[in-house]
User: Fold this.
Amino acid sequence: MMAHCLKLSLLCCPQLVTFLLIRLNILVLGGSSGFIELYAYGMFKIARVTGIVGTCLALCLSSDLKSLSVVTEVSAGGASEVSYFQLETNLLYSFLPEVTRMARKFTHISALLQYINLSLTCMCEAWEEILMQMDSRLTKFVQEKSTTTSVQDEFMHLLLWGKASAELQTLLMNQLTVKGLKKLGQSIESSYSSIQKLVISHLQSGSESLLYHLSELKGMASWKQKYEPLGLDATGIEDAITAVGSFILKANELLQVIDSSMKNFKAFFRWLYVAMLRMTEDHVLPELNKMTQKDITFVAEFLTEHFNEAPDLYNRKGKYFNVEKVGQYLKDEDDDLVSPPNTEGNQWYDFLQNSNHLKESPLLFPYYPRKSLHFVKRRMENIIDLCLQKPADVIGKSMNQAICIPLYRDARSQECTRRLFKFPFLWNNKTSNLHYLLFTILEDSLYKMCILRRHTDISQSVSNGLIAIKFGSFTYATTEKVRRSAYSCLDAQFYDDETVTVVLKDTVGREGRDRLLVQLPLSSVYNSEDAAEYQFSGAYSTRLDEQCSAIPTRTMHFEKHWRLLESMKAQYVAGNGFRKVSCVLSSNLRHVRVFEMDIDDEWELDESSDEEEEASNKPVKIKEEVLSEPEAESQQAGAAAAAPQVVIKVEKLDPELDS
Assistant:
């Protein structure tokens, strides 16, 4: 219960919610299910795009909300065909202020529904099974007693004459006991008080806040010029408001039942406790012994109302009595309440039932006297979900496919099980409003890296839309020695808007010295002086790997910003320009190296700097290697490692001489 209360306090924090909702951000999700979903602030679904063929490998929504880039994979004939799509999202762009306001409301509503769920969970945890002891003991008493006298008459006789039958005395003294009665009374008081506080402090306040946000949403929906194109429906929101009102009425009813039960149980247990003390001839305190005629009448009414045997109830619930009435409101069942509130003599209720006009008036919230709080809550959630689902459908249907480019056919996809680390990679440049796609094409047994870029605005074109990169030579800055070979691209990711981090494999280098980490500046790839020489001469409607000769190729030569990854089969890379860090992962997913990338001179050192740096005692960078259990055991003979270890080693970020 404490964990749930902590969640409640976090959800109540207005500063956190305000901070998160300053600017619209959208989480885009896709997989193999044939649809893509967009979640505002990562919480509430505002769009659902259907009809996606294949499995989504990469997704990227442009920062200006004009287009959504999608890379899909369709398996056929023992291989997979990978394609690039660009979807128009003009509705999101054109109605950005309205979408932002609507998304904030949706997020508040979603958070409040979760808040109400947690409140109800805490209330269920506060209710204890010990509260059912009175019902179970009385049912057992009915089944075992040999006389025909009813249980109500047995207790009435004890109340009026102060004497109990032998069977009732056995029930009270041997099964219920004085100590058990006292514990039961304390449990009921503690449990009911906790539930009452949760209803007042959390359930009611959360419901009223939910009603407020839905009312504001209804006002927004009334501005049809702004919000009707987004699918916001005032009629559906009105139904949701009515459902929340019914839930508030049911919560108030629960409060009345708790208040009444606490008074009834307190008086009943006080009288029964004194009666049981007299049976045992124990001393009764004077303040407990005083009982007025009003108290006797109150207990008599309680016995009359709660101690009637109900055979129908036994067939339904396996018990003859329902003395405890709070628990039925907290059970997640579709059945009617065992003991619904007594509406006889309620003038307002009778007036509404006799008036056909008021009974169906939209100004009055419907009341469900025979249903539990859980039932009304589930009904409210379903109506709200239905109401808020329509904008997601409308916005999703507005997203149309504008561009489709078949990329390549890849036989490796069927053999590759590590899908999380696979090409291609999408990137959105917020400054220039461009979508970038990094992928590789197999040519002459080498995987050549290609960069496809499209403008986020479908109507605009961009020069050098497709270009391939060939890695030519790498020069050591101090020795001016040049490393030339045939390089295959293993993985690449954007480090920042201007740089791509690449892992290369030297196809002729010896094992352990055949992987390179390279920082590729886009400024050298897209040179305005010779842009006309690097234009794609093929057709985007044909698969790109079938027209490799039409793809312009730029050969890159590096004098710095590269290094040899020694003694590591590097396969995957991840870069973060904001944190100035790149992370390299081995092909078996067991070996990790993390590099700081912000100091240029360390990328230019040569092999001769090893002894100089050791002699000068200068600080060096730290590299963390995470080794799996088998690697740790092989490197440390005799060490019985029971779990993966973290080994910290010292390493200089200087490139090695060629082998």
Summary: The mean pLDDT is 79. DSSP finds 19 helices and 22 strands in the chain. Residues 93-391 form one domain.
